[in-house]
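@channel sequence for tomorrow's demo:
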Amino acid sequence: MLAPLAFTNVVSASEQEEHQQENEITQCSRTSNYAIYLSGINVGTMNRTETWQGKTAVVTSTSEASILGIGTHYQQRAELSWSNARNEWLTDTFHQKVTGFRSRDMEVTFANHGLESRVDIDGDIDTYTSKQIPLRDVDTLAIQIREYLLQGRQQFALIRQASDAIEPYQFYVEDVQTAVIEPWGELTLIPVVQTGAEDVTYYFAPAMDYQLIKAKYHGIILQGLIELDSYSSSCEPSLAQYP
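structure tokens (generated this afternoon):
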């Protein structure tokens, strides 16, 4: 009777180990540093760090810039999570502080799978709703664009929660192109064009796990650009379906 009992104990221990591995929460982080340009002039820097724990993340962004001669400091902390109901990344909450140009202290919480928001700006509270497309902060918006690229999507719609409105955008994936981005040299980039309240072109690099390499803001008077200076990651590369 000892042999079957020993075999049962081995199987039980193996099952427990597999169950433990299945429930381990993957933790990793990505840090990106960008230079900010306005009409070709370097006006500041931006740092963005994603801290991942399984299907949730905290994204912290800070930037220092001089815009129209006014020194501006921006910082934001956003919490996001994967929605099994919608198969999308959704913002849970974010807190944004801006001093200098367009200064504000903004706290936003989301409900009903991102279709409802409560916005507190310097103590003034407003609420917003969307019928079908979830509302997101700018950092979760970028993560969801990347998610759609990984899925092979060619066009899609997203909505950003701005300080005093909701801004709907349409996105179109264009043909790949190459560009020399120091210190990485020549990279293949996937342009994603955003139209709507703001016209922006985002560039993602498949060779760098589909991270955002640069973004161009197409203003009527001023042209904005952010471009990656340095990048580090402890995350496993994602599997992509993009051709």
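heads up for whoever presents: The radius of gyration is 21 Å.
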